Automatic annotation (TrEMBL):
PANTHER family: 30S 40S RIBOSOMAL PROTEIN, SMALL RIBOSOMAL SUBUNIT PROTEIN US4M. One of the primary rRNA binding proteins, it binds directly to 16S rRNA where it nucleates assembly of the body of the 30S subunit. It comes from Cloacimonas acidaminovorans (strain Evry). Pfam families: Ribosomal_S4, S4. Residues 3-94 form the Small ribosomal subunit protein uS4 N-terminal domain. Keywords: Ribonucleoprotein, Ribosomal protein, RNA-binding, rRNA-binding. InterPro entries: Ribosomal_uS4 (IPR022801), Ribosomal_uS4_bac-type (IPR005709), Ribosomal_uS4_CS (IPR018079), Ribosomal_uS4_N (IPR001912), S4_RNA-bd (IPR002942), S4_RNA-bd_sf (IPR036986). This is Small ribosomal subunit protein uS4. One of its GO terms (molecular function) is structural constituent of ribosome. It comes from the Bacteria.
Amino acid sequence: MAKYTGPKAKICRKFGENIYGNAKYDKILSKRKYPAGQHGRNLRRKLSDYGLHLKEKQKMRHTYCLMEKQFSNYFKKAAKAPGVTGDNLLQLLERRLDNVVYRMGFAVTRMQARQFINHGHFLVNGRKVDIPSYLVKAGDIIEVRPKSKGMKPLLEAMDKTEVTSPYSWMSVDKENFRGQFNSIPAVSEIPVTCDLRLIVEFYSK
């Protein structure tokens, strides 16, 4: 699966916020609050209507570390499901296993969570799952594989994140390297700053 391998600090500066979660990007943004590039500091160009819609779509896509085709497929799935399309989209993205592992504090970033999952370090309901896009369901138990509990990168990541989950829709027991995805969160609970309405309008044009 293709993935973005370019400078993530440049993306954060483009959107003016730390969309990846790593603390190092907060430091970069505190020093350089303007977009990257030769004219970034003095850029005053007003975005067109299309540009505003595109920016929101790109912002959410990069937040969840997805390529364009992946993101588009999620939108199509959200549009076919009953309910509000924008809400469906965000809830689908939150159910991705790499996002859940990140939210539970077993990884510092979604990209690190994806790497851990690809290498087979996590179990879902007792079975190894090495697919980052696996959609977690309410009640699923996510835990570190026994053989992986002493892995240094995992332990370092857990030390850098909160002891318990700050999110109401999941519970975490770090001492036992496990957590539970209790329910699909309400959109109002999900800490994402993207404008869902603009994203839906972008794909509806």
